[in-house]
Amino acid sequence: MKSGVSSRTRKPRRRARIGVLSGVVLVGFSVFVATRTPTALSVSPSPIVSHQAPVLAGVTLSGKQFSLTDYRGSFVLVNFFASWCAQCASEEPQLVAFSKSGLGKVLAVDFQDQNGPGARFLSEYHADWPAVVDQSGEVAVRWGVSAPPESFLVSPTGIVLTKIVGPVTSSELTSLVAIAKSKGF
User: Fold this and answer.
1) Model pLDDT, residue 18
2) Could you tell me if 111 and 133 lie in one domain?
């Protein structure tokens, strides 16, 4: 024995250290769980967040000219969807509710889809906002989208505030707009 401490003394000390360490880990995990974003709202990092929104312009599914810059002065949710996407179908009524709330506008990008199915999809849910088709995926690449549904909340000045991966609810969007307003956007 080099330290003059018996093995009987070392075991209780080791147990005490393990107990303290376990307690610290448990408290840290509890704080993490209590303060994290709900799993239903997956806000993701993106290189375009906090920057001017990428160009989004073109001809809508209804044949009209459209540009994201036309919506300056309002919060805008840019939503990437597809007619073949089951999560998009579950999300669409929530987007309609948010649109009707008056808190912001919704603009859609039909992700690697065809005009006909995309237009029928939006019509089925009474989604009356502009939508452009992105068959080639160029718009998705500019915005950093990998698969629908993905959405971006854009400030009234055209700054991308957040990227949302997966379906989002009207109440979650309402909360995000309230947070943005409280921060001066």
Assistant:
1) 58
2) yes
